Amino acid sequence: MQSFQMALEERNFRILDVLIDLTQKMVEGELLQLAKIGRMTSPRRCAATGAYKTACLFSGCARLGAV
Fold first, then answer.
1. d(C-alpha 56, C-alpha 30), whole Å
2. How many CB atoms lie within 10 A of CB 45?
3. Is residue 41's pLDDT more than 80?
4. Under a CB-based contact definition with an 8 Å cutoff, are residues 22 and 60 in contact?
5. Which of 57, 54, 58 is nearest to 33 (CA)?
6. CA–CA distance, 15 with 7 (Å, rounded to integer)
7. What is the mean pLDDT of the chain?
């Protein structure tokens, strides 16, 4: 939330776009994970969930650094 606030204060909409995309994907990943609680899952689906959460976070941080 602090990142959103800082981007708004600076009126940097490129940063806001990255933060919005990043947050949206991470929330989708969390919802996918919650839907799978107590169920068996394949390694492929587990990796897909990780891509939504961890990999997306790392990617977003790299994009923010570039912006």
1. 12
2. 13
3. no
4. yes
5. 54
6. 6
7. 87
Which position has the token pair 């991470």?
26
Q: If you count DSSP H runs as helices and E runs as strands, how many of each does the chain have, helices first?
A: 4, 0
Quick: pLDDT tens for 49-61: 878 788 888 999 9
Q: Nearest CA to 49 among 65, 26, 66, 67?
A: 26
User: HSE on the CB side for 17, CA within 13 Å?
Assistant: 5
Tell me how far apart the alpha carbons of residues 16 and 10 are, in angstroms, rounded to a whole number. 10
What average pLDDT does the segment 2-8 reach? 88
pLDDT given at position 33: 85
Amino acid letter at 20?
A: I
Q: Averaged over 1-5, what is the pLDDT?
A: 87
